[in-house]
Amino acid sequence: MDLTSLNTLLPASAGILFFIQSCYHLGLYRNLYFHSRKEKKETDTPSLSVILVAKDAASDLQKNLPAILEQDYPNFEVIVIYDQSSDDDCEDVLKLLEDKYPHLHHSFIPDSARYISHKKLGITMGIKASHHEWLVFTEPNCCPSSNQWLRKMARNFTTGTDIVLGYSNYEKTKGWFNRKATFDTLLNSMRYLGRAIGGHPYMGCGRNLAYRKSLYYEHKGFTSHLNLQRGEDDLFINEVANGKNTQVEASSESIMRITAPHYKKNWHEDKLNYHLTSRLYKGFSRYLMGFETCTRLLFLLSVIACLVYGILMQSWVVLGTGILLWILRFIMQFIVFRKTSLALGERKFYTTLLLFDWMQPLWNFRLKLSQRFSRKDDFMRR
C-alpha cells in the first residue's frame, strides 16, 4: 500500500468509526438521561409484594431492610426467603424485624434442595407465597435511595405493562475500584435500559425489577434455565419482554444503591457470571453491544494510527483529522455521560472517563478469556 492510499485510508477509517460511535452515543446512550428527566403522572397504587432471596446476608438485611419496609406506600408486603444452608443469623434478624413490621414475612430454602438454583427456588417460593399480582424484586445488599421507590416503580403499572425495569448502581465510596465498578455499571445500564426505552428490551437486573405474577406463571417461570447459576433476572426478562409490555423507571427517587463489594473477587465473579449467561440471550442486542465495544477500540486505534503516521510522514491533514475526530467524540461522550451521571446521582467521571474509555473493553476481553477457560460446573448452582 502506497503512502497516498494511507493519506486517504486512515482519516476515512477514523471518520467511519466516529460516525458509528456517534450513533451509539446520540441514539442509545443518551436515552437514559432524557427518560430520567421525563415527567410521569402518578397512577393508582396497586397492592404489591416485594421479594428478596438472602444468603449469608444477616448484616445486609439488618442494614437495608428497614428502608424497604418503611416505604411510603399504602399496601405492600415484604417476603424474604433465606437459604438455610447459610451459616449466618438471618432467622434471628428477620424475627426481630417481624416484631416491628407486621407486613414482613419470611421462609427458608431447605438444606435438602439440590440440583437446582437456590436463588431461583427462593424466588419461586416467594412468588407462591405472595398475595398480590405485582411483584417487585431486589436483593439484601440493596437500599432504596428514598422512601418513594415503590411509588415511582408503581406509577408504571399501567394496563398494558407487564415489566418495569429500574436503575441500580453501587454506593459511592473512596477508592479506584469503586470508581471502576460504578462506571461499568452505569455504562451497562445506559445500554440495556437505553434499549428498553427505545422499545427493544433484552435483559433486566434483579436488584430493581418488577413484573406481574401472571407473567411468571404464563411463561412457566425459570423452567428453561433452572440449571444455571444466573438467569432469574436477565434470561427471564430476555425471554418475556418486548417493546409493548416493558417500561423503564429511572427517576432519582427510584434508584437502588448496592452496598460496595468487600472484595474485588465478588465483583469479578458477578461480571463473569453475567458474561456466561449473556451468550444465551435471544435477539440482536448482545451483538449490538459487542459491536459498540469493538468499534470503540478500533476508533481509538485509528486515531493513534493517524497521529503516528501524521507525525512521521509530516502529513498534517491526517494528524489534524485524527485529533479533531478524537476531540469531537470526547466532547460528545463527556456531555452524554456527565448529564446522565448528574441525573442519576453518580460520579461526574471527568478525567477518569478518558482512562475507563480504554479500560472497559479490556475488562470485557479478560472476562471473555476467563469464560472460555471456565468449566460448565463453574457457573452451575450446587
The major beta sheet can be summarized as:
7 strands, mixed
| Gyration radius, in Å | 23 Å
Q: How much helicity do the residues have? A: 40-55%
Q: What spatial form do the alpha-carbon principal axes imply?
A: elongated
Q: Structural class, judged by helices and strands? A: alpha/beta
Separation of the first and last Cα atoms: 57 Å
The overall average pLDDT, rounded, is: 89
Low-pLDDT runs: none
Question: Helical region count?
Answer: 13
Beta-strand proportion: 5-15%
Strand segment tally: 10
Helix/strand order, N-terminal first = HHEHEHEHEEHEEHEHHEEHHHH
**Could you give the order of strands across the largest sheet?**
3-2-1-4-8-6-9
